[in-house]
TrEMBL record:
Its EC number is 6.1.1.19. This is arginine--tRNA ligase. It comes from Penstemon smallii. Residues 25-113 form the Arginyl tRNA synthetase N-terminal domain. Pfam families: Arg_tRNA_synt_N (PF03485), DALR_1 (PF05746), tRNA-synt_1d (PF00750). Residues 486-601 form the DALR anticodon binding domain. It comes from the Eukaryota. Forms part of a macromolecular complex that catalyzes the attachment of specific amino acids to cognate tRNAs during protein synthesis.
Length: 601
C-alpha cells in the first residue's frame, strides 16, 4: 500500500474540495475525496463522520470502511478486511493542514486534528466574525408557528414554553441564513366567540363597546360567559346565532369580536415584550375565507368522505377520521390547519413548516400532515422538502410534580411569573452591594437579563419532550447548569480582558493564537464545533443541544483558566485571544437562546 491505491476509472476530484463549513463538513469533504477513489462507481458515497466517543482516540471518526467493504466484496480483492480498506482510505486522503494524524482500529478511522490548524481557525473565526461560520441549511424559507395562544382564554405556561422554544428555533434558523416567517397562529376564531359576544351585549345592552377597564380580566369574563352558556339554553341558542351573524360579517358582531381580540392581544404583548420575542400574528380567522376553496380541492381528489353527518378525511392507521366540516356545517381546528398549511406552501412558498405545541397535540398534527401527503402537497419521503415538523414539548410541573400553578390563583399569570424572576434577581444583586456600585438602570437591566434568561434557560436546557419542574430556587442558583451561572461566567471573562488593559481588537490583528497546553487545545477545539452544534440543533429541532454545548464550553474555559495563567504570562496575547473567542461564542449562544448577556457582575 505504498503508492496511491489503483483506480478503476479516471476520477477527477470535484472542485468543491475544501469548501468551508463546520469541522464535520470539512472533514467529510476530505474523506469523500478518498472514498470516491476507493469506489468510483459509488459516486454519491457520503462520509460518515462523527465525534469520537473517546477523546483519547482522536477528535472525529470516519465509519465508512465497514459498509464499503461489504459493498466492494469480490470487486476489490486487494482488501481482505475492513481494516485494510480503512488503511487505504487514510492513504488516499488529500493533503490537508487540518489533519494531524489518523489511526485505525477494526476498520474505524480516528482522526486527530492539528493544533496549529485549530489555533489558526479560531483566530480566523475571531477576525471574520462567527456569522461567517454559520451553517448552511438546504432551506430557503421556513414558517415557525409558535406561541399561538387563544383569544379570551388564558395564556398559560404551555404557551410560554411554545414562545421560548419557538423563538430559539426561529433564531437558530435565521442565523443559518434561512428566511423565517414567525407566525402567531392565535385562536381568534371559533364558536366560543358567539358566547363571548352575546355575553358582552348582555352586560352592555346599550351596544356601546366599553373600554378595556369595563371588561376587566378577560379570563374571568370568559369563565362567566361559559357559565352562562352552560347554564341557560336560551342564552346558548342566542350565542349560536351570534356565531352565524359574526361569520356572515354583520358589523355589530364584527366590532365586538375585534374588540375582544384587541384586549387579549394587549395581554399577550406584555409577555412578548418582557421576553423580547417578536412574532407576526396571522390568526385562525385569517385562513377562514380560504377554507371552502381548499376543501374543494381535496374534494376533487376524492379525499373527503361523509361520515355520521360530518365531512371527514380517513387516515390510514387511525380509527377516528380527521373531521374537516362538522355536523352543523362549521369548520374546526383541523380545517383551519389544513388551509393554513396550503397557504404556507402555495402563497408563502415556505419549504419547512414548523409547529411548536405541547406533545398532547401530536395526533392532530400527524393526521393533517398525512392528509396533506395524501393530497400530494408534501413528498411522501420524510427527509424531502417541503417538509413539516411538529415540535412537541412536555408539561411544566410545579415543585410538587403536579401541573404548574401559582399560589395565589389557580392559573399562572405569566407576566407576574416573569416579574417575580426579575424581582428575585434584583434582590440578590442588592444583597451583593450592587445598588451602591451601579446606576438604577444598570441594576434593572441586569436583573431583567438574568431573571428572564433564567426562565428561558431552565426551559430550554431539558430535552423538550420531557416534563420539567419550574423552580425559582433551581433556575436562580448561581452554581450548576443555569443561566445565572453562565451569564456570570461570561461577565468574568469580560472582566479578565478588561483588567488586562489590552486592546483585543488590536491583538486580533497583531497577535497569534497558539494552543500548546492540553486545556487550551480542548477549548479551541470546542469553540470550532459551534457551527455544527447549531446545525444539529436546527436539524433535530432540539435547542437543548445548544445549551449543553454552552455549558460544556464554560466548563472547558474554567479548566483552561484554572490551569493556564492568562494575564502576566508569556502566553498572554494568545490566551487573551482565547478568552475573547470564548466570550464571542458564548454571546452568540446567548443570542440564539434569546438571553441578553451581561458584561459585569
Ligand atoms: N392555539 C393552539 C393552542 O393554544 C395552538 C395553535 C398551534 N398552531 C397550529 N397551527 N395549530 O393549543
Amino acid at each position: 500500500l505504498d503508492e496511491k491505491i489503483e483506480m478503476k476509472h479516471n476520477y477527477k476530484p470535484s472542485i468543491k474540495l475544501h469548501k468551508a463549513g463546520s469541522l464535520k463538513t470539512q472533514l467529510a469533504n476530505l474523506f469523500e475525496e478518498s472514498l470516491r477513489l476507493m469506489a468510483p462507481e459509488e459516486l454519491d458515497v457520503n462520509a460518515a463522520i462523527a465525534p469520537c466517543q473517546n477523546p483519547t482516540f482522536g477528535d472525529y471518526q470516519c465509519n465508512n470502511a465497514m459498509g464499503l467493504y461489504k459493498k466492494l466484496k469480490g470487486k476489490a480483492p486487494q482488501f481482505n478486511n475492513p481494516q485494510s480498506l480503512a488503511e487505504a482510505i487514510i492513504k488516499n486522503l488529500p493533503a490537508s493542514e487540518m489533519i494531524d494524524s489518523c489511526s485505525t482500529i477494526k476498520g474505524f478511522i480516528n482522526v486527530k486534528l492539528s493544533p496549529d490548524w485549530i489555533a489558526m481557525s479560531v483566530q480566523k473565526m475571531l477576525v471574520d466574525g462567527v456569522e461567517a461560520w454559520a451553517p448552511r441549511l438546504p432551506v430557503k424559507r421556513a414558517v415557525v408557528d409558535f406561541s399561538s395562544p387563544n383569544i379570551a382564554k388564558e395564556m398559560h405556561v404551555g404557551h410560554l414554553r411554545s414562545t421560548i422554544i419557538g423563538d430559539t428555533i426561529a433564531r437558530m434558523l435565521e442565523f443559518s441564513n434561512v428566511e423565517v416567517l414567525r407566525r402567531n397562529h392565535v385562536g381568534d376564531w371559533g364558536t366560543q366567540f358567539g358566547m363571548l359576544i352575546e355575553f358582552l351585549f348582555e352586560k352592555f345592552p346599550s351596544g356601546e363597546v366599553p373600554s378595556d377597564q369595563a371588561i376587566g380580566d378577560l379570563e374571568t369574563f370568559y369563565k362567566a360567559s361559559k357559565q352562562r352558556f352552560d347554564g341557560d339554553p336560551a342564552f346558548k341558542e342566542k350565542a349560536q346565532q351570534a356565531v352565524v351573524s359574526l361569520q356572515a360579517g354583520e358589523e355589530k358582531y364584527r366590532k365586538a369580536w375585534a374588540h375582544i381580540c384587541e384586549i387579549s392581544r394587549k395581554g399577550f404583548e406584555r409577555v412578548y415584550e418582557r421576553l423580547g420575542v417578536h412574532l407576526e400574528e396571522k390568526g385562525e380567522s385569517f385562513y377562514n375565507p380560504y377554507i371552502p376553496r381548499v376543501l374543494e380541492l381535496l374534494d376533487r381528489q376524492r379525499l373527503i368522505k361523509e361520515s355520521e353527518g360530518a365531512r371527514v378525511i380517513f387516515i390510514e392507521g387511525k380509527k377516528i377520521p380527521l373531521i374537516v366540516v362538522k355536523r352543523d356545517g362549521g369548520y374546526n381546528y383541523a380545517s383551519t390547519d389544513l388551509t393554513a398549511l396550503w397557504y404556507r406552501l402555495n402563497e408563502e412558498k415556505a419549504d419547512w413548516i414548523i409547529y411548536v405545541t405541547d406533545v398532547g397535540q401530536r395526533d392532530h398534527f400527524e393526521m393533517f400532515f398525512t392528509a396533506a401527503k395524501n393530497a400530494g402537497w408534501l413528498p411522501a419521503e420524510k427527509d424531502k422538502y417541503p417538509k413539516v415538523s411538529h415540535v412537541g414539548f412536555g408539561l411544566v410541573l410545579g415543585e410538587d410534580k403536579k401541573r404548574f400553578r401559582t399560589r395565589s390563583t389557580e392559573t399562572v399569570k405569566l407576566v407576574d411569573l416573569l416579574d417575580e424572576a426579575k424581582t428575585k434577581c434584583k434582590e440578590v444583586l442588592v444583597e451583593r452591594g450592587k445598588a451602591a456600585e451601579w446606576t438604577e438602570e444598570e441594576l434593572d437591566k441586569t436583573a431583567e437579563a438574568v431573571g428572564y434568561g433564567a426562565v428561558k434557560y431552565a426551559d430550554l436546557k431539558n430535552n423538550r419532550s420531557t416534563n420539567y419542574i419550574f423552580s425559582f430556587d433551581q433556575m436562580l442558583d448561581d452554581r450548576g447548569n443555569t443561566a445565572v451561572y453562565l451569564l456570570y461566567a461570561h461577565a468574568r471573562i469580560c472582566s479578565i480582558i478588561r483588567k488586562s488593559g489590552k486592546d483585543v481588537e488590536e491583538l486580533k490583528e497583531s497577535g497569534k493564537i497558539v494552543l500548546a497546553h492540553a486545556d487550551e487545545r480542548v477549548l479551541g477545539f470546542h469553540l470550532l464545533q459551534f457551527p455544527e452544534v447549531v446545525e444539529e440543533a436546527c436539524t433535530t429541532l432540539l435547542p437543548n443541544t445548544l445549551c449543553e454545548y454552552l455549558y460544556n464550553l464554560s466548563e472547558d474555559f474554567t479548566r483552561f483558566y484554572t490551569n493556564c495563567q492568562v494575564v502576566g504570562s508569556a502566553e498572554e496575547t494568545s490566551r487573551l485571544l482565547l478568552c475573547e473567542a470564548t466570550a464571542v461564542v458564548m454571546r452568540k449562544c446567548f443570542y440564539l437562546l434569546g438571553i441578553t448577556p451581561v458584561y459585569k457582575i
